[in-house]
Amino acid sequence: MSRLVRQFVFVAAAIFAIPHITFAQSSPSSSPPLDRTRLPIAEPTVKQITELDVRNTKPPARFQVTAPQGAPNVVIILIDDLGFGATSTFGGPIPTPTLDRLAKGGLRYNNFHTTALCSPTRVALKCGRNHHTANAGSIMETATAYPGNTGKIPNSVAPLAEMLRLNGYSTGAFGKWHETAAWETSVSGPFDRWPTHQGFDKFYGFIGGETDQWSPLIFDGVVRINPPLKEGYHFTEDMTDQAINWIKAQQSLTPDKPFFTYFATGATHAPHHVPKDWIEKFHGQFNAGWDEVRQQSYERQKQSGIIPANTQLPPRPEDIKAWNTLSDDEHKLFERQAETFAGFVGHTDHHVGRLIDAIESIGEMDNTLIFYIAGDNGSSAEGGMVGMFNEMTYFNGVQEKVEDLVPLIDKWGSPETFPHMAAGWAVAFDSPFTWTKQVASDFGGTRNGLVVHWPKGIENGGGLRKQFGHVIDIAPTVLEAASLPEPEVVNGTPQTPIEGTSLLYSFNAPDAPERHNTQYFEIFGNRAIYRDGWFARTIHRAPWNTGKQKPLTEDDWDLYHVHEDFSLANNLAGKHPEKLDEMKSLFMTEAAKYKVLPIDDRTIERVNPATAGRPDLVGSRTSLTLYEGMNGMMENTFINVKNRSTTIAAEIEIPEGGASGALLVQGGRYGGWSLHLRDGKPAYEYNWLGLERFLVESPTALPEGKSTVTLDFEYDGGGMGKGGVAKLSVDGKLVAEGRIGKTQGYIFSADETADVGIDNQTPVALGIGYGPAETKFTGKIHQITVDVK
């Protein structure tokens, strides 16, 4: 039975059973229409009751806000780091049967755009405004002090989830968030920009930009939880289970209430973690190499009409080598990288299929508006020329080598790697475009496949739509589909008008003129402007170039007429200089209007709060005292021990029989440090990117009773990521000393945390166990003090 039928039966039964109650919000004729432009909707004034005896009265109607009659359920599925040319639905080499199925019954959009980076796309998607309007000009971890880039979403851009919740929807978010300011991710809050304060009744997922799919950092609401203990556990499967259970329970208990589900996988962002049987499904399928795979996708795209027949395939970036010039070892390594990525895509689409099957099983498919967005940006080229066993090497400016990666081929994608593929594959999976994620000035970075499915609202399935669209168009599309006005005030704050354009006009009018006519793009200095079929752009930096860039004023601009040049293959700057000047001037106008200026092209330098100028939770404090039970502290909310001398003093108590386990750790298997007891002996281990380890350990175990274990690290100085000397003392007496050859200068991990008394997720050190249960300190910690110089 569909929700609409159940709603009719529910209301009819209630009216006939209790004829003296007026259901003001369910019956349009019984009261004035609700003012939905001011949220929350004001409760009506209840007439004063003067009668003494309740028996002589009739109860007033219960005030309840319900969604407009016939309002659809809404599901937004957002895949991470997946390029336009990856999926079978858009001509790519990787079968995506769920996306194919929804496209067959719905619509494909081949001219839909993102911002080219994760946080900006996600924020813009869910509020309907440009990413700089929402202060999300880059990822949260690189926010700065400038308007448009602060990382702090203003109350004046209320998210779609809050609009729907206050209009009678149930709302649930599952998977990746990455929209909370980096300094607001501790137990101290504020939680204003966490999912459950951004309109979602339910959240199950991770807060940051990525997580280990085998050992994720999960929050249920605002509470950190450990993943289920299950053999072969994978986060995508877990989040899908959670989403299915929530939707079914919500419809069971409140069948008259539509739901909004935001389903944002950590896949296919690095780390490319996927069960081995999914990798094996693609064994040998990428032996032709990235040039041939790209060419074959391009041919399929033309033959199927996904791209115009006159589309040209531009050359790949010059930095990327031709496949036929690579060595046998490079071929072997890169083929495995592609097989793993393809397995990750297939595995993800499979679990999306489970979600769709669940919605169908409860009879809700006909009136569920589904947006399946195949990528929050193009495929990622952050793996550089050879890929990475550990993605954190990229964020620390370390280049991995083929000879070190080849021995890891059989482990690729397993819990023993934190991998990313080479940039050549990113370009191939972005066919027919040239560039990738981070390049906001090329469609390889911004154009992503979109499928919309809504049987009740789409008359003829299987169509292709070519109108220009952008992620800021999704929120107004949902509002129009649900017959809801754009709110003018939300929770007491006047709203910045929505800047997107509803796509609903195109659902049943394939040739309708496009309505989104102007759109700027900017990420890390790569910038462009679109207007009425013209596109002007400059490629300021490649994703694999994280060092100092040339001055912004020296950038060369290109000009394209995209209605005739789908892939940006023919630069018309020389033929139409006046048009180019007009477009460049338009960019500056739009950039000033939407708080894009000043442009900041720095990348990993901005990970450091001091460099970026954003708030820092610990700030200028040089000492932090920690207590037992404090764990799950993300890197941006912990004292910064990188590139400086540090003293850690742990006041502990050893029980009879001795003790072992973690005292204080930061990071995980792929980088970090650990102060711990192993077989009762104090030790300090520095894990440099999972590539090298440095251990300083006492030769004797601690006696029963109180002790103070102190680690003094004397940093060499002279730049970032240098080494130093570690000295380990017990009650003021030196017990061990050793050299730490190198350190991580920028970041330990995107999702691993600092923990007192345990080592969450993956272990930093060898030999003290795996996870909270095994690494928990078996003595007592009174306090631990961290001092930095």
Name of the CATH first level of the largest domain: Alpha Beta
Number of domains: 3
Radius of gyration: 28 Å
Low-confidence sequence ranges = 1-29
CATH structural fold name of the largest domain: Alkaline Phosphatase, subunit A
Strand content: 15-25%
Shape: globular
| Largest β-sheet summary | 10 strands, mixed
Q: Going across the major beta sheet, what is the strand order?
A: 8-7-6-5-9-2-10-11-3-12
Helix content: 10-25%
In DSSP terms (H or I, runs of 4 or more residues), the helix count works out at: 16
- The end-to-end span amounts to 67 Å
At CATH's second level, what is the architecture of the largest domain? Answer: 3-Layer(aba) Sandwich
**Name of the CATH superfamily of the largest domain:** Alkaline Phosphatase, subunit A
| SS content category | alpha+beta
- Write down how many β-strands occur, each being a DSSP E stretch of 2 or more residues: 30
The oligomeric state of the chains shown is: single chain
Helix-strand blueprint:
Elements: H1 3-17, E1 38-39, E2 73-78, H2 97-105, E3 107-109, E4 112-113, H3 118-127, H4 160-165, E5 170-176, E6 202-206, E7 218-220, E8 223-225, H5 235-253, E9 259-264, H6 276-280, H7 290-304, H8 328-361, E10 368-374, H9 392-395, H10 402-405, H11 423-428, H12 443-446, E11 449-453, E12 463-465, E13 469-470, H13 474-481, E14 489-490, E15 493-494, E16 518-523, E17 526-531, E18 534-538, E19 558-561, H14 577-593, H15 609-612, E20 623-626, E21 646-654, E22 661-668, E23 671-678, E24 681-688, E25 692-697, E26 705-715, E27 724-730, E28 733-740, E29 754-756, H16 771-775, E30 780-788
Parallel strand pairs: 1-14, 2-9, 2-10, 3-12, 4-13, 5-6, 5-9
Antiparallel strand pairs: 3-11, 6-7, 7-8, 10-11, 14-15, 16-17, 17-18, 18-19, 20-30, 21-26, 21-30, 22-23, 22-29, 23-24, 24-25, 26-27, 27-28
Helix pairs in contact: 5-8
